[in-house]
Write a structure and sequence with these properties.
Helix 1 runs parallel beside helix 8 and helix 9 packs parallel to helix 12. The longest helix is centred in the last third of the chain and has 18 residues. Strands 1-7-6-5-4-2-3 form a 7-stranded mixed beta sheet, with helices on both faces. Strands 10-11-12 form a 3-stranded antiparallel beta sheet. The N and C termini lie far apart (52 Å). Helices cover 36% and strands 14% of the residues. Strand 4, helix 5 and strand 5 form a beta-alpha-beta unit. The protein is α/β, with parallel strands linked by helices and 343 residues long. The structure holds pyridoxal-5'-phosphate. Pyridoxal-5'-phosphate binds next to helix 2 and helix 3.
């Protein structure tokens, strides 16, 4: 586990002590929100278009998600609107990168700083991407969370990490991921254990098992290959699917920076179900990331801003296959299958 943290630190060009690996991306978001000090009644602004993990983590702390809309171009948070949703109860904002697009982190950070609240950067989609300032995602931002679940760009089968700016917060998180147990660092460093320990904080059983860390270390060795292969597939789709009326593609990205994650198209005109059936009939499996958070029974009573883009896109999005092992002819089959639907 420590070796994996060191390698992530090296990869991101940061002090490895800032990296706290955990058992899932959900645990990472949860621990990140603990660092934000979220307690009962505190509001956390999040896109409604987000992973359930984030909503559940807010609610688990007694907090209240406040649902914000996303931009229609890249489906990341609308920054001005997030600002307009801030009230005295707001403790934090969650922003995330989506698919093959990076959010405007600097603009969202400026809003958070102006209002004296924390920003949690959920970078589950963008491990290995590079921001415009030339720094890798997670290399400079405070409270950045990653997921290493089976479909993410880097996987440990199951795993996650939080990157903290503040070494003291990182140290606290290391106690929290081990049920709040606090053992002397010297003993831990010497690889022995004391039979006595103190419990000095709230705690969870969130540590990353060494078995998973070992898988993560191996995956990390292959990351440049996986990145370039995903870029090739992204390019093939962008070129092969152009010019179909009734289909929106993801925005063109500067592929020097982005490590493409999921490839999400939007099927217009209420034809999504037919589109999915058509592809399925041709042997092409699709996915859907995500349904809108504010529509789920468990979250529908929470406050929200206007959500016109979210309402529209959740009826249109379809995730098509993209993973490093996808062969060129399989990629072409996906393209041909989609083109035949619109023919
Ligand atoms: C995958 C994901 C998570 C949760 O990560 P797990 O490892 O599946 O728990 C959180 N946020 C986003 C944006 C994700 O895509």
């Amino acid at each position: 586990m420590q070796e994996f943290e060191c390698e992530i630190g090296r990869f991101l060009d940061i002090d490895p002590k800032k990296v706290v690996t955990v058992n899932t991306g959900t645990s990472a978001v949860h621990l990140g929100l603990v660092a934000c000090g979220i307690e009962k009644g505190d509001e956390v602004i999040t896109p409604s278009f987000n992973n359930i993990a984030d909503f559940q983590s807010i609610v688990a702390l007694g907090g209240e998600p406040v649902f914000c809309d996303v931009r229609s171009d890249d489906l990341t948070i609308k920054v001005e609107e997030a600002e307009s949703l801030i009230t005295p109860k707001t403790k934090a904002i969650i922003g995330l990168d989506y698919g093959c697009s990076l959010m405007d982190y600097e603009a969202l950070l400026a809003v958070a700083q102006k209002h004296g609240i924390r920003l949690l950067y959920d970078a589950a989609h963008s491990f290995g991407s590079v921001r415009e300032n030339g720094v890798k995602v997670g290399g400079s931002e405070d409270l950045c969370t990653f997921s290493f679940d089976p479909v993410k760009n880097l996987t440990c089968i199951d795993g996650g990490a939080v990157v903290y700016h503040d070494l003291e917060e990182a140290q606290k998180a290391k106690h929290m991921r081990m049920l709040g147990q606090h053992q002397s660092q010297e003993l831990l460093n010497s690889n022995s254990r004391s039979w006595t320990y103190d419990v000095d904080s709230v705690g969870f059983r969130y540590h990353l098992a060494n078995l998973h860390a070992a898988i993560g270390l191996k995956q990390l060795e292959k990351i440049e290959f996986m990145k370039s292969r995903r870029r090739e597939i992204f390019d093939r789709y962008q070129n092969g699917l152009q010019g179909l009326s009734g289909l929106y593609l993801p925005p063109k990205e500067d592929l020097d920076n982005v490590f493409p994650f999921i490839y999400v198209v939007r099927v217009l005109g209420g034809r999504r179900a037919d589109f999915i059936d058509h592809l399925k009939g041709l042997g092409v499996e699709t996915g859907m990331h995500w349904q809108a958070g504010h529509r789920f029974t468990h979250f529908k009573s929470f406050r929200r801003g206007p959500l016109p883009v979210t309402e529209e896109i959740v009826e249109q999005i379809v995730t098509i296959p993209m993973y490093p092992d996808l062969k060129d002819d399989e990629c072409q089959k996906v393209i041909d299958s989609i083109r035949s639907f619109f023919a």
